[in-house]
Sequence to fold (179 residues):
Amino acid sequence: MQVSNQASPLTSSYNPQSLFSLIIVAGLIFGLDQFAKTMVVNSLALYESWAPIPALERIFRFTYIHNTGAAFGMFSKSGSVFVVVAIVVAAAIFYFYPLVSNWLVKLSLGLQLGGAMGNLWDRIFNNGAVIDYVDIGFWPIFNIADISIVTGVTILAVWLWQLEAQASKQQPPQAEGTD
Fold:
């Protein structure tokens, strides 16, 4: 039985060759993230800020910090836990990715893997801390890896929500009061 790309994110067979596109997307995100972090570390002192557009400093600036928590500073001082979580997530993505047929789901997983690897690299080489620098004033400071993870999870969640809505439209309504 053939599974449609619209109805299911999975193919009927395992295709390890498809890992190439995952590695490309994740590698681009990882490279961009590490390049930006290197620029910040080489240009700013820890806790120093720089506003590329001085008139917008209150709503956009770069501030170099170390984050020992999850995205946006949640669960601080839990760096070693997030190392394990990132490794488990990466392994799951590598396992399930070849089963995926939907290009949007594939993009989502690539974004998540690239972001997770960028922050994992930081945790390994910065004593459990991640380098964050995007400071928009009213929100915790974050980085490209965080943006990538959140974007990937959002794409996946919206896609799954739409898939669930399609499935519920195809099921006949259940009769009420059948005792």
